[in-house]
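seq:
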Amino acid sequence: GKDLITDLNSIPLPAYDLVRMEDYAQFGPAAIYAARGCPLSCKFCTLNELWEYRYRKRSSENIIEELEIFKDAGFKRVHFKDETITLDKRWCSELFDEIAQANLGMNYKAKSRVDGINPELLERMMNAGLDTIHTGVESISQRNLTSMAKQISVAQIEDAFETMLSRGCNVNPVY
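struct:
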């Protein structure tokens, strides 16, 4: 196997001081990864093999340190690039509570599996400034979902979309 870094906090933040971040802030959102990897086995995904089915997360403090750099550079929006930020719901909930407490005044977009979305977690995320969620909806056929080893049901897709739409979150399904 690969020697994957276990402690993501040990990785230095990018050398943002070497570029004029203010120039980038006027054109679009900043990008951040809060975690790496995925332990799931969806048949169509290559990321799980790349990361050897291991999931590793940064601490809230480490993530907020990077978010503060973005804020200071003038970014108004940040995209969490993780494939599914809600994989560990407890960690995600604590992260977005910390982001809300930091009161950075930015908005966020993130990606989630539909089974990672529940009303309580979504409200905590939106309270911190999340306004958009991208979800993977590879099929609305249960037979197809089962054959992909996605481990979700059509009912879970429907429930997640109802939860997101009823709370005014922008929803972008990715097919």
